[in-house]
Amino acid sequence: MKKLAAITFVIVSIMGLSYAGMSYGTTQVSIATSKPVYRYGDSLSFSVTVSNVTGDMAVLEIVDQSNQSSSPINMAIAKSVSNITAPFPFYRTTFSPGTYFVKIQYAGANATTSFQLVDTGDITIPPQFKEVASSWVQNQTSDRLFGEHIAELVNSGTIKIDGYREQNVTSIPSWFRNDALWWSNGSISDNDFGHAIEYLIEHSIMKV
Prior knowledge:
Radius of gyration: 21 Å
Oligomer: single chain
CATH architecture of the largest domain: Sandwich
Number of helices: 4
CATH topology of the largest domain: Immunoglobulin-like
Number of domains: 2
Distance between the termini: 26 Å
Mean pLDDT: 88
Shape: elongated
Strand content: 25-35%
Number of strands: 10
CATH superfamily of the largest domain: Macroglobulin (MG2) domain
């Protein structure tokens, strides 16, 4: 489960949560996600409820269905209910579809909840790729480097091309800079840009 250790969290207001938790001694903790199913482009949000604020740090982990875990994430608990959202959405480049578990330890108490991450077929591309596209449009990034980033999106399954094989040469039509410009400045969606790439590669107009 790639890059889970890089996740950090910020506090936001969330309502309408269901929860799961268990008690230990005189301390109780529960954790709940804001919804049971997320899709690519969504940000994980959850609520942590404690019976009393002890001053201890909570330790959070995200575990996938193969039991691979993120690095522990330390989180300060300053009130009985903390509403948290991840600052970065789910992307296919870092998370595979499936079941995930959010585990928390606090003052000797433990709680776990789970959620599903599903692939609806819509293309969502991490924002750092827009920076590369913008740089390529301005001739500050080579075709080869831009092509490597496109290949990364294909290899991750973000852009789906059956039977794809990376090419020894990079060939990107010069007019495709218009598409890259429109996408990088938000004039066209991730979905439109991704499908344009799919078409060009499938018809051998683009090679990456």
